[in-house]
Every structure is written in structure tokens, then in C-alpha cells.
Amino acid sequence: MQRLLRRVPQPAPGRGGFPPGRGQEARVLALHDLLRAQRGAGDAEGQASPRRARGGRRCSVKRQRTTWAVLLAGLLPGLAFGAIGRVDVLEGTATRLPEGGVAQPLAVGADVEVKDTLEVGPKSNLKLTLNDGSVLMVGEGSRLFISEADFEGQDRKGFVAKLGLGKVWASVKKALAGSQAKFEVETDRAVAGVRGTRFRVDAAAPKVMGALSPRTLVQVSEGNVQVTARLPVKPGEAKKAKPGERTEVPGPHEVTLEQWTEKFIQLQANDQVVVDAELGRPQVGDLDRKVAGDAFGKFVQRNQDPKTP
């Protein structure tokens, strides 16, 4: 059995290995070919010695059944946690950190899974194609956590990614009519939710390590995006006391998520919104072409498919 397993081809790390998203399938097919070859060798031996063939055929069938049972038992756990997308373009370097695992370098053709944290190196850019055909592009110095990804074949049931810092651009495939499938990109300051469109999200790096990102930019190049802006509650916005009621004024303290206020903003094509914690209110305006045309924007222009829905 061990000799048989060693003969099964393994994906080549760093070079894409098997075709994208087909690694497990390729291994199963390879195992099938090996077993057929072994059976062929047994048949040839049986033709050379018919007397031995009659007694050994039943043992051969039992061995093959046992072999398949053992091999599939080892393969099925890997199939249960399948890829939700693959790397199509990589300029420079990037890594994926599986939940509870160690960081692995990415390469063109590599698979990406739910609960992966993707980090893009300096002067680098990354393009991913998800199982439903939606596209994500991630810019240099970015950190993106794929918190939710539910696909049935090529249909999306839900997708949520958290942008810790950096830049991400998305071209979202439209869901089936009547579907409530969501596609969201979150930051510390905003949640951008769409059904089918193209948009970009930038999350500024925290000024202090461990702090929240202070600023988020959402730009829409096509379609509509609903943005939920998260802003800290200012002291003047606290609940007003009733006449004659005494209130205690809290001293300086850290603002928690429960003390944020949310504002809902609907953006259309060529709109943008800036959510800045220091300004205290969202700034909605026309899309800033200078920002859209930066180095990351040029990478997007080079690699977006005009036919991407």
C-alpha cells in the first residue's frame, strides 16, 4: 500500500501543481490508473498460468476493494474543505495563512480556502477568481481575511472578507434571480455589501500597532453598493438627560464596538465615500480618478476582464 501511495503524483509547491482546484480529483484519477495497471498485470499473469488465475481472482477483487476503501478514506477529508478560489495573477509575492496553520507562499494556480488570511508583499499585487466567477484583486501591503465563503458549484450562497489594511477591488458576479446571496467586504470603519457590481475598498493602516484602522474609502465603478459606515459616538451625541435628571459624565475611555453609530449610504457608479473616524461623518462625493488611477488601479485595469459580470 505504501509503495502505491508513493507512486501517486503530488502537487508541486510553488508552481501551481495540478490544475487549479483539481488537485484531489487528479489524485483520484491517478490512483484509478495505478489500480487498473495492477489489475492488468494480474490478468496477464493469469493468462500465463490459468490454474493460479482461478484461485487468485477472488483475492485480487478483495485486495482492490480494500485498497479503494483505504485510499478514499484518506482523500475524502481533504475534499470536505475544498478551495473557494484560485490565484490567477501574482506580481511579486503573497502568502496564505490557513486557520491554525503556518504561512505558505502563493503562486499562480494555487488554491485559496475559507478562513485563509492573505497577505500581499511590498510592490506586489494579487488576483483571485472565486468559484462563482467573481474576481478579487488585492494590492501591496494588504491583509485580507476570508471569514465566510459558501458556494454550491458555481452558485454563491454567501461571501464575506475582512480587509485589515490595504486595498481590494472586487468584480462580483450577479446572483440568481431571487437569491439573497451576499457579498461583503468589511473594514474597521465600514461594510460594503453588493449583489453584482465592481467596487474598490481601501483601509488605512492604524497609526498605532493594534489599533483600529482610522479611515476607509469605498469607490464604485459599476453598479450599486450599500455601505454601512461605522463611526464612534461623540460625547455630544450621547443620550440627553430628561429635565431634572442627574447624569454622570464619563471620563476619557476607549471607544468599543458597542459605542459605534452606524450610518447607511447607497452609492452608485462613479460615487465614493470616505469614512474617517476623526471627521466623525461620512463624506460622499464623486469618484476620485487620481486615487482610482494609482499603481493598484493600473494593475486592476491590466487584469480585469471586460466580460466579468
Summarize the structure.
This is FecR protein domain-containing protein. By secondary structure, this protein is α+β, with helices and mostly antiparallel strands.
CATH fold-level topology of the largest domain: Jelly Rolls
Please provide the count of β strands.
17
* Main sheet record: 17 strands, mixed
What is the 3D form? globular
Helix content: 10-25%
Tally of individual domains: 2
Q: Architecture of the largest domain, CATH level 2?
A: Sandwich
Encode the helix/strand succession as letters. HHHEEEEEEEEEEEEEEEEEHH
Distance between the termini: 47 Å
- Give the C-alpha Rg: 27 Å
Q: How much of the sequence is in beta strands?
A: 25-35%
Mean pLDDT: 76
Contiguous runs where pLDDT drops below 50 for at least 5 residues: 1-26, 68-80, 245-255
Architecture overview:
This protein has helices at 2-6, 23-48, 50-80, 289-292, 295-303, and strands spanning 85-91, 94-97, 104-105, 111-112, 117-120, 125-130, 135-138, 143-152, 155-171, 182-186, 190-194, 198-203, 215-222, 225-232, 260-267, 271-276, 283-286. With 309 residues, it is an alpha+beta fold. It has two domains: 2-80, no CATH class; 85-303, Sandwich (Jelly Rolls), CATH 2.60.120.1440. It has a 17-stranded mixed β-sheet that branches. Helix 2 runs antiparallel to helix 3 (50-80). The radius of gyration is 27 Å and the shape is globular.
